[in-house]
Design goal:
- The structure is a single chain.
- The chain is built from 5 helices and no strands.
- By secondary structure, the protein is mostly helical.
């Protein structure tokens, strides 16, 4: 009989902030799944681009550069504030931690407001043609992820107010920061594809 691959998890600790915590592997798995979805969107975008006689279709302008560029800067800044918060919890600086978490949430809320205005100002509908469908899908997918990251980090911030987290019990902060960084950084390639590729190709 073939030997099965197993993982000895009896010594894993829920307090370990690193690789020995099962939830660390869980969030890593989630990030890998989401990254594969994003990669799929990018592949579909380029496939549609290659099949289309004109991209974007005649009379449709590529998304404007200014506000999407602002959202890139805001999301990168939020990754910095998340790092600042994760360092604060190591030193039990709860005020700094809470300020960092809600600063990140505030930046995300600004991104959501800007993105909503972009949706409202878009020249194409999601059901107009393939170009409209893929642009709306990519932007909407990321919008939902920013919403989920903001909600999760708000909960982490509230727990910070209650002083739930400590240098020993910080795995919640670690995995929240991992997910937040993914959501923030994944917008960079999507921004390039949506805003610059139609101008370059």
């Amino acid at each position: 009989m073939r030997e099965r691959f197993t993982v000895e998890a009896s010594e894993f600790s829920r307090f370990n902030p690193g690789h020995s915590a099962p939830v660390w592997w869980g969030i890593l798995g989630l990030i890998l799944i989401e990254a594969s979805v994003v990669s799929g969107f990018i592949v579909v975008y380029f496939y549609l681009r290659l099949m289309a006689p004109e991209w974007p279709p005649a009379g449709v302008e590529p998304p404007p550069l200014f506000w999407p560029s602002v959202t890139v800067l805001l999301l990168l800044a939020s990754c910095v504030t998340m790092w600042w918060g994760s360092q604060a919890i190591l030193k039990e600086r709860y005020r700094q931690f809470v300020a960092a978490m809600f600063s990140s949430v505030g930046l995300a809320c600004v991104v959501l407001v800007v993105r909503w205005q972009q949706f409202d100002a878009m020249e194409v509908g999601w059901d107009d043609h393939a170009y409209g469908s893929i642009v709306w899908t990519i932007m909407g997918f990321h919008f939902i992820h920013v919403v989920s990251a903001a909600i999760g980090t708000s909960v982490v911030g509230v727990l910070g107010i209650l002083r739930y987290f400590t240098p020993r019990r910080q795995i919640g902060v670690v995995v929240d920061t991992m997910y937040w960084n993914f959501v923030g950084l994944v917008w960079v390639p999507l921004y390039v594809v949506l805003c610059w590729v139609p101008r370059w190709l």
